[in-house]
Amino acid sequence: MILARVTGTVVSSHKPRKLEGIAFLLVEKIDPVTMKGKGDFVVAMDSVGAGIGEIVFYVSGSSARFTPVTEGVPTDCSIIAIVDLIEKDGSFTYRKDNTAI
Amino acid sequence: MILGKVVGTVVSSATRIDFPGAGFLLIEKCSQSGELKNDYVVALDLVGAGKGEMVMVSEGSTARETPATVGKPLDAIVVGIVDLIDENEKVVYQK
Q1: Considering only the top CATH level, what class is B2-94?
Q2: What gap in Å lies between CA B45 and CA B78, rounded to an integer?
Q3: Which of A8, A43, B43, B88 sits CB 3.0–4.6 Å from B76 for a disulfide?
Q4: Could you give the residue ranges of the DSSP H alpha helices within chain B?
């Protein structure tokens, strides 16, 4: 799974019927130490209700079809979790909510 | 499988999937001698790996091939903790 920040949405009205009702999000891969974007973007299907600016991790490849939302859907990239905390070498590089600890 | 070192953890409460194992680890990819590559992957821990340990990470659809992860949306799992690597009859990494 790869860490990324939700930077936008992708809208498509011309798509297979199976994809109707599923949100496409534009996500940018991040460096989990600096939390900066890497300038590398992918379009991911959302299975958790992620919002713009949130840190998420997504699953790619055939495993992207195994979320409750994307079962049997032609996707190769699905957001499976919104990140609350990232801890590296004993310190937090990211905390979604500062009161969480 | 790729080699990586456990450098941290990633915590998420907002997920609709019931994941097995001991949570998600932040893994930094490394060479066989343990040099870090500044490239990170989040992997589900099935073996109870600890901080700083070198581990093997299985990626892709293979991550769903264990009894615990069948049918789960996972593309990276920690499958083993490395004790020793020898390359050309020389030990390049030892735990």
Answers
A1: mainly beta
A2: 5
A3: B43
A4: none
Q: Is B87 helix (H, G, I), strand (E, B) or coil?
A: strand
Cα gap B89→A72, rounded to integer Å: 48
**Of A7, A31, A50, A37, which is closest to residue A88 (Cα–Cα)?**
A31
The complex scores an ipTM of 0.87
pTM confidence score: 0.90
Q: What is the pLDDT of residues B48-89, one digit of tens each?
A: 999 999 999 999 999 999 999 999 999 999 999 999 999 999
* Cα dist from A32 to A4, A38, A69, whole Å: 9, 10, 27
Q: Phi and psi at residue A75, in whole multiples of 5°?
A: -125, 150
Total tally of structural domains belonging to chain A: 1
- Chain A nearest-CA distance from B48, in A, is 17
In this complex, the residue of B16, B26, B73 whose CB is nearest that of residue A59 is B73
